[in-house]
Amino acid sequence: MPQDTLTITDNRTGQSYNLPITDGTIRAMDLRKIKTKPDDFGLMTYDPAFTNTASCRSAITYIDGDRGILRYRGYPIEVLAEHCTYLEVAYLILFGELPTASQLKTWVHEITHHTMLNESTKKFMEGFRHDAHPMAMLVSTVAALASMYPEARQVHDHENRLLQIKRLIGKMPSIAAMSYRHSVGFPYVYPDNDLTYPENFMNMLWKMVEPKYVANPAIARAIDILFILHADHEQNCSTNAMRCVGSSEADPYLSTAAAAAALSGPLHGGANEEVLRMLDEIGSKENVHAYIRKIKEGKGKLMGFGHRVYKNYDPRAKIIKWTADRVFEVTGHNAKLEIALELERIALEDDYFVQRKLYPNVDFYSGIIYQAMGFKPEMFTVLFAIPRTIGWLAQWQEMLSDPEQKIARPRQIWVGHDTREFVPIEKREKQQPATV
Ligand code: SDX
Predict the structure, then answer these.
(1) Residues annotated as part of the active site
(2) Looking at domain 271-373, does it have CATH number 3.40.50.720?
């Protein structure tokens, strides 16, 4: 019997089956041959939240949760964060290779010349309330871009696909900055093509009446590193949304909007905003013990802690902590950091968290840095969505190019009623409605 097979005996029938094992998996469809009678549907797997289900083959990002490893196209995140710019890493994630100097120059030029938004976007933005959440504005505006570029629906036209990808990478910071400027009632600032990607983002956020914005280099580099750390993360919730929506051949703008919507949840990219609210609620180092007691009683979660994959530490958190020190050298000391460090120190020694393998994740420190840079918590997930756009698009492209992929359509276990007799409305009695 070849070693790379799994022998399953169905005790309902006594029949045995040999299933091939490929890349550490069995194909779920191979289970369908396990039946009790010829017209039986066959076995399925049941895996809510896909905790143990591979949905695709990917060569973009590799994570080893036990060893705290994160690599983009084989390069360790630590090396990329130290030596590259975000656009250089975006090129790597999309095309699979680090660019030469001339390739990078062309790539930066092309992205830079896609930072402008159609002027009608300003009118679109005006429709939001003054206190609209920037993530709601970003998701809606990215979706609205589908109306600007109807040719984006030709998702199998490679040249057209690449053009939309460049547009999205170029325009994300512009949309994000407009969402911020709208929320504070400031006039929008147009892109400045003389500036780098992070510097131009800062320009569109923070330029006031000075003739030309001059970015603080330490803050610009910190933003670039944070963008690199957030660029992709294999099959996370928002990437799963991107692949699922994209599998119906929806255009990349609507698929990216769906992915950003998934990211906005507090268990995913919205966690960095919740970390700041948690630190505000704790208020001081002295209150940390009482707060942890509350979490251990099951009253809430320690936001910024835990991860579905990383069960030792999130390698990005270590780099973010180093970046935080560089930012605080510019912005001055941050009292929230003291509370965060005390929270981390106590949690890492407490059995409740150690047993559940709960360590700080990427969101734990990113929120503190963004707050020190002057961002409001509502902007934090927007700052996550900007860099993650290249990850979503690279995964979307990989899905479209994968001959095994088709429209996503999971199955279900039926737990509802069997066939019921219809009751005319005049004969119906009040029923206990299902809890909504
Ligand atoms: C991101 O997937 C990705 O890669 C995401 C991401 C990316 O780059 O795309 O890395 C970005 O989303 C990071 C995660 C940000 N979210 C948070 O910080 C929110 C707080 N964390 C949790 O909600 C939670 O840890 C998750 C959602 C991140 C992971 O949840 P899992 O893997 O489904 O784990 P679980 O909910 O099954 O928890 C296992 C146990 C449970 O306790 P018991 O029921 O066994 O007693 O751990 C507990 C949970 O209650 N637990 C926590 C906790 N996280 C899990 N208890 C307190 N505080 C927490 N943060």
Answers:
(1) 268, 307, 363
(2) no
